Automatic annotation (TrEMBL):
Keyword line: Membrane, Transmembrane, Transmembrane helix
Native organism: Amylocarpus encephaloides
Main localization category: membrane
Subcellular location: Endomembrane system
Protein known as: FAR-17a/AIG1-like protein
Pfam families with a match to the protein in the record: Far-17a_AIG1 (PF04750)
Membrane-topology descriptor: Multi-pass membrane protein
GO annotations of cellular component type: endomembrane system; membrane
InterPro entries: ADTRP_AIG1 (IPR006838)
Length: 242
């Protein structure tokens, strides 16, 4: 197992902290799993009209993002336990989607809430501050920590990132409209206040924002882990064994 772990680290020398491992990496992933589990428990313990509607809470981008984040951390923790390169690869692949998506969700939710929270939270739903943070802040924070300190650098470029973001935006829009046909209401009040053209603009802007977050996260990874130094031909100070 030790040799397998060393092999993984040899492949990804830019990580700040050894991962997968039973140390800090496993601790971060289990904290995420506990937090995400408590958020799911909240949906059951404090039901709303959404619980009985078509599509359940899957109508919310927040819950879709939480689910992908959950899967990312489950595979990350399993990789920590087994030191499996395959599970580690799955975790990193999921992170390409979950991390920019959760950053997008945090930006949209807190940005719109600063203007008018009733645009993103129906009046029938009353959420405490801890639950609010658990749904709309903790996932993005933990995923960014996982990316910056426990993951190899992303190789995705802006154009493929735009394709992924656009596919997610179109798929979610189609899903929301499908649920609307059954329920007669949108999960986010803001959607009901916009016409079709305005909603298309909103989803386009969301896709662009998610793409921008992917590019920003790649840039931030380079700053934190010294990739710019490598590109200039100098040795990074954080390579293991130096």
């Amino acid at each position: 197992m030790a040799s397998q772990s060393q092999e993984l680290m040899a492949r990804h020398p830019w990580q700040k902290i050894s991962s997968p491992s039973l140390g800090v990496s496993a601790f971060v992933h289990i904290i995420g799993i506990i937090s995400f589990s408590l958020s799911y428990k909240y949906l059951v313990d404090f039901p709303s009209m959404i619980n009985d509607s078509y599509g359940w809470h899957w109508q919310y981008l927040t819950i879709i993002g939480l689910t992908v984040a959950y899967a990312t951390f489950v595979f990350g923790f399993l990789a920590d336990l087994t030191l499996s390169p395959t599970l580690f690869l799955i975790k990193n692949s999921l992170s390409l989607c979950s991390t920019p998506l959760e950053v997008l969700i945090s930006l949209l939710y807190w940005g719109i809430s600063a203007i008018d929270k009733s645009l993103v939270v129906p009046p029938e739903i009353h959420m405490g501050p801890l639950a609010d943070i658990g749904f709309h802040a903790i996932p993005s924070i933990l995923l960014v920590v996982d990316l910056l300190f426990l993951s190899p650098p992303w190789t995705i470029h802006a154009l493929p990132a735009m394709g992924l973001s656009s596919a997610l935006a179109v798929s979610y829009w189609a899903w929301v409209e499908h649920c609307y046909k059954h329920n007669g209401f949108y999960p986010y009040p803001l959607f009901g206040q916009l016409n079709t053209t305005q909603r298309s603009i909103l989803f386009t802007m969301a896709a662009l924002t998610m793409t921008a977050s992917t590019v920003m996260l790649k840039w931030l990874y380079g700053i934190v882990n010294g990739l710019q130094a490598e590109q200039r031909g100098s040795k990074p100070s954080n390579i293991k064994g130096e």
